[in-house]
Fold these 2 entries.
Entry 1:
Amino acid sequence: MNPAELNYQPVATFENYESSRANYKMEKGAPTRQFIAGVVVNLASVALGTCLGWTSPMGPVYSSNDTSVNPLDVIPDTGEKSWIGSLVAMGALIAPFIAGPCAEKFGRKLTLLGSSAFFVVSWVLLLTTSTVGQLLAA
């Protein structure tokens, strides 16, 4: 077939694109509400980062013999310290398999709010702990 015999028809033109966009108007949102929504959405990331990173500065505190610094009754041994540091990562490994079905059943918003409750309970346990077992549970 000779290319001169082909009849090419344009599929879309720029004019059609502009006219279709003219009918759509974006809503104007309040900047304050958008800022608050952005902060709230990022709180989960901050909470996870805090949970993953708190063991690094707390390791020397839990190793201290000074009872005014160390809140625990006993000094954790090396094995207990490694469990303290790794349980959060192990929880992060298991959590998606629980959070996925929960998000399907209850929705993403309720699942995130529910996970926030676990973070709060964990931090309260960390603040009030006096034994290594409580620390591991937190």
Note: The CA atoms of residues 125 and 138 lie 5 Å apart.
Entry 2:
Amino acid sequence: DGTAEPVDIIAVHSLNGNPYSTWTHPANGSMWLKDILPSYVPGARVFTFGYASRTVRNPLIATVPDFARALLDSLRNLRQEGSERATIFVCHGLGGIVCKQALVFAHLDQKRSGAVLDSNVGVVFLGAPHSGSSLVDVEGTIGRVINILSAT
């Protein structure tokens, strides 16, 4: 009948990213998740998940598992609203690792998180470092050095 199944799109940004600017074109200010994607996926709801991922000026205090637990808590709350909508994740960089970890936690606690797993129909990884990244280590080290030097 031409009607699309309702879907929730959850965007998870990368290291040093932002839940809005990561997905926004710097020149024209268009946030493609909000301004373009809905014309391709009618009826989709778009959510962004943000976490404190700054490393250079503000070293990471939380860890990927901490971010993943926060994402999973947000997803459980979304499912508790009675939503039967399918979920698709769009993850950039470290956001892909956070998402994968959240899905692992959901699998390990299916009693509380089964609806999160059942609703997931896909994950889009954009530059996710599935095998790790030496850039993360270098950036963290540089950030710590800068913090030490700026404190003296």
Note: The CA atoms of residues 4 and 136 lie 39 Å apart.
